[in-house]
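Researcher: Next entry in the queue.
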Amino acid sequence: MMSDISRCVATALLLAGFTAAARAQAEVTFPPSLPGGVEFVSDMSREMLKPGATLREGVAIAATPPTVDFYYYPGQTYAAKLWSAWGESLAVAGKCYSAIGDHDGPRGNAFMYEYDVQSKKLRLVVDLNQTLRVPEGQYTPGKIHSRIDRGSDGWLYFSTHRGSTRVTTPENGFRGGWIVRYHPELKKSEIVVHAPLPEQTLPTSTLDPDRMIYYAGTQDGANEKEPQFLAYDLKKRRVLFQADRGPARYAIFARSTGRVYFHAEKGDRSGKARALVRFDPAAPDRLTPTKAMLGMRAATVETPAGKVYTIDADHLWEFDTKTETARRLGDAAVGEKDYTTSLDLDRKTNRYVYYIPGAHGGAENDGSPLVQYDVRTNRRKVIAFLSPYYHRKYDYTPSGAYGVAVSPDGGRVYITWNGARGADGSRKRVRWNTCAFMVVHIPASERKP
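Model: Structure for this entry, 449 residues:
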């Protein structure tokens, strides 16, 4: 048995180690830069295929390593409270759109970026504070926590979220979150609406691009109440429907019907199945319970066959939008970590989904694996273990990802990383200080039709 003195010594050593690691990470300079001052580096190494000790039995590893292009996000010019990314990215033909923020408050800021496949340029396209133009000293959001989705009008839509719950107060000028849009051709961003639901931020979203309805799950500034549900008509610029129980983190959108499905309650990280409720724009005055039971922290788009895939903890699910039934496919985790917040579909084959467990940190303990799940065979395969290589070569530890997007042709996976420069490489919790962007080129041999 450990004595009280021994426990005190052990605790002191642990705190000293954590403080030293935090101090080392705090000494990094801004803006981050790659060797030689280049904009990005491109690597391919069999080191990316070497698993760690936590790999689960039965998980496959790719035979061919991918080529990976690695960037630091521009705009990280100061030591923020927490450079971090919390929202879903959007991959369209030839482009990827993603967002990061400084998590600060009451005067926070967030940024949206465009990656161009042809030029391989990653550029800042939306500086949120410049778009919102809120008077100095008043609250501005430090997060884009929502999805980025494209409407039929060509605009990209997203919404804002707060950083600390201590700053979203009337004294700081907090009234609620914003829905914002950006037009890639016009290179213009503008406010759609501010505070469509009073004193509610808008961390969860999905867009109906045909009917032009923006759906959101909201949170009050102090995060004390249940999420609310918002259906906002973008054409008429008005609230279409509001309910007191909304999605805490994610919703399924069925483009074939326009229906939206979600858990009308705060979730947990157990992965247990819970009943879905449905909102139908054909009957826009109510929520309707369904009999479908599944777990959902993230979801894909709908396939032509009416399937949507969801993930929650160590479970992957299939939801049939035609029959409103669900079934569990299999285990999702490949190591110790199972918290996964972003799941995207290879829309060319509708066969593979991609994700990275360990979204909220700790992914590096499993090697920061990019996982490909084959929904035909229920087989998990690691495309690459990304943490060891990038920590060793570039002193960057990719620690968690909330944004994983697959190009329409299935050939590239775009990842927005929360991570750190200057981490010591141990299994201690990495303190994020820098966001990075990766383009993982999936070998054709690893994505057969």
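Model: Residues 1-25 have pLDDT under 50 and may be disordered.
Researcher: Noted, moving on.
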